[in-house]
Write a structure and sequence with these properties.
The protein is mainly β. The protein has six helices and 32 strands. The strands form four sheets. The chain has a 22-stranded antiparallel beta barrel. A five-stranded mixed beta sheet has the order 1-6-7-4-5. Strands 2-3 form a two-stranded antiparallel sheet. It starts with 33 loop residues before the first helix and ends with a strand.
Length: 627
């Protein structure tokens, strides 16, 4: 998010800064370069451009995040599991991170998850960039942004200026297709995106004598997205569906029990912004969203089909204003209101059911002040009050000090806090008498950013975080109705470093993250917490096309007490993109996990001697065209 205030010029001159149009959502404005954004923003941010997405052939959001420093990704076959900075609890499914599309949240309150999978979120081809904002984000975004906020910025009609299509074949596993249309006529800009996929992936042996068939691990889905903008007024609509069948119930449950889930998400929003004077602007937004999830499994032991489902309907609005009376000072403030009049779910054919409502309100403010020509101070806070199964009130401050002694050097000192309210499912299947308390998260971080030349940059950061009332399942209670408890007090600490080189037709990067996550309640490392993560990649373009290589290595040993341990792993990805034919058509060949490295994750505390194999080698062929 660009600082509203600019440092005081040495000569006393002043110009009005370019402020955000959507202040609450606070997407990162790029300015002239990504480097300038990462250097100046009062947050720890990584930006993945559309060019990088195409260069390395990212098909899904979790594939892109796998190569962000400090992140880990895996799958329990049902959902992607993404960890950040040592917090990588099994069965997390995105509960502790917030994914936004153009600044609008995709969070749902039934299971507490966020959109990560194909069919539930805007496809990679439709994105202008991905903004990864590390650290607690509740001072800006409210509940859900516990550890990281991810903003997906879509391509505008001006950027598309025509039609683009791509067809991808995943070996013998399935196909994905995508088409984007967009343009601008006068003051009207519009864009439309349509995508779909159908895949069936072979799974390696899970347990001795149990190798699932390819048909038992299949997925299909589609996603529709459209937007139109006219003179600061924007209408957006989105709908997605994903059906996933897995050969075994997910983490912590019995093996050899087929499991099918269907997720659907829809949202619509109308926003407007207006510049009222040279120093004052205002914006407002109203929105509605709908979520539906269902699960069906078959129990051979009981010879019955077990059905569960849940639904969440919500609506709300945001109003805010920005005041910049001086070039060195800016203030933004506003309020938010959300209502969820009907939330329900039924579990095990109605054996356990719940229906409730939820209302939420918030007020927020943030100021940026240029203390000197090289030093900027940002302070802000947000107060949330939520009425649901439990009344939750949360005050979350943030502060950032950014010092740029030279144009190519930046130092940041950051502090922020966040919270997460328990989902309806967690609260109604809790293993404690009292309602689950909100999770609390605080973090402090120091960052040094350095640009050695026009092509080379370096960064290093160190952080320490504290977690209170973390919601988790006690070992041995998986699969029962007494699941979740406020049972963990923990702290996280680590060091992350990154070196990047970007030339005209070639580039490379290397990243190393050292992480420590300790559970004080059990006096042991947090389950799933990685220790050292190494990521590297590079690309080179020449007359026959472009070749890009990426290496990911994780040295952590995962497992549980008195259980089988899964060792560290590494893998190599390779992507080749052909030069354009007829100036419009390109081919791309990608091999994920080139050497077919076998890596696994624990299947759960109660399944102490079982592990879940992760995806092996996969060959992809894509054909894309610009019309």
């Amino acid at each position: 998010m660009p600082s509203l205030a600019q440092p005081v010029p040495d000569d006393g001159s002043a110009t009005l800064p370019n402020v955000l149009s959507d202040l609450l959502a606070a997407p990162v404005e790029l300015g002239d370069t990504y480097w300038a954004a990462e250097r100046d923003e009062p947050v720890s941010v990584t930006i993945i451009s559309a060019e990088e997405i195409a260069r390395y052939g990212y098909e899904t959001l979790d594939e892109a995040l796998q190569h962000v420093r400090g992140f880990t990704t895996s799958t329990d076959y049902l959902y992607a599991q993404i960890g950040a900075r040592g917090l990588s609890l099994p069965d997390d499914r995105g509960r502790r991170m917030l994914v936004m599309v153009d600044g609008e949240s995709t969070h749902e309150y039934i299971f507490g998850g966020t959109a990560l999978e194909a069919g539930l979120v805007v496809p990679m081809d439709a994105l202008e960039r991905i903004e990864v904002i590390r650290g607690p984000g509740s001072a800006r975004y409210g509940t859900g942004a516990l550890t990281v906020a991810i903003n997906l910025v879509t391509k505008s009609g001006v950027r598309l200026a025509g039609a683009r299509a791509r067809l991808t074949q995943f070996g013998d596993e399935g196909t994905a297709a995508h088409i984007s249309l967009g343009n601008q006529a006068g003051d009207v800009s519009w864009s439309v995106s349509v995508s779909g996929n159908a895949r069936a992936e072979q799974v390696a042996e899970i347990a001795e004598g149990f190798t699932p068939t390819q048909d038992s691990n299949r997925e299909r889905g589609y996603h529709l997205f459209g937007q139109v903008e006219w003179r600061g007024i924007r209408l957006l609509a989105e709908h997605g569906m994903r059906e996933k069948r897995v050969p075994t119930r997910p983490f912590g449950s019995s093996l050899e029990q087929p499991f099918t889930t269907v997720d659907e998400r829809s949202r619509i929003s109308l926003s407007a912004e207006r510049v009222l004077s040279p120093s004052l602007s205002a914006s407002a937004q109203v929105f509605g969203n709908w979520f539906y999830g269902s699960v069906q499994s078959f129990s051979e032991r009981r010879d019955i089909s077990i059905d569960s489902e849940g639904s969440d309907t919500g609506f709300g609005g945001i109003a805010q204003a920005t005041w910049t009376p001086r070039a060195w000072y800016g203030l933004r403030f506003g309020g938010e209101s959300r209502g969820h009049p009907k939330q329900y779910y039924t579990l095990n054919n109605g054996l356990l059911s719940a229906e409730t409502s939820l209302s939420q309100g918030a007020v927020f403010a943030e100021q940026d002040m240029g203390l000197t020509s090289r030093l900027t101070l940002t302070t802000g806070a947000r107060y949330d009050f939520i009425y649901g199964d439990e009344v939750t009130r949360s005050f979350n401050p943030r502060a950032a000090l950014v010092y740029t002694p030279l144009s190519r050097t930046s130092f940041k000192a950051l502090y922020s806090s966040s919270f997460r309210v328990a989902s309806l499912f967690e609260n109604r299947t809790r293993g404690q008498i009292d309602p689950l308390r909100a999770e609390r998260f605080r973090s402090a971080e120091l960052i040094w950013l350095q640009r050695w030349s026009d092509r080379t940059s370096f960064s290093v950061s160190t952080y320490r975080s504290w977690i209170h009332d973390l919601i988790a399942t006690p070992p041995g209670k998986e699969g029962s109705f007494s699941l979740y408890e406020n049972r963990i007090e923990a702290n996280l600490a680590g060091v992350e470093t990154e070196l990047r080189y970007l030339g005209e037709d070639h580039g490379a990067y290397a990243q190393v993250a050292f992480q420590r996550a300790h559970d004080h309640t059990a006096d042991e490392p947090l389950p799933g917490a990685p220790s050292t993560i190494v990521q590297a990649g590079g690309h080179a373009q020449w007359r026959p096309g472009m070749l890009a290589l990426q290496v990911v290595a994780n040295s952590s040993v995962q497992g549980f007490e008195n259980a089988v341990k899964t060792p560290g792993w590494w893998m190599l990805h390779a992507t080749y993109t052909s030069p354009p034919a007829w100036q419009r058509v390109r081919a791309r060949i990608q091999i994920r996990n080139v050497f077919d490295r076998n890596w696994r994750i624990p299947a759960g505390p109660s399944l102490r001697f079982e592990t879940l194999p992760q995806p092996g080698r996969q060959v992809r062929l894509s054909i894309s065209a610009t019309l």
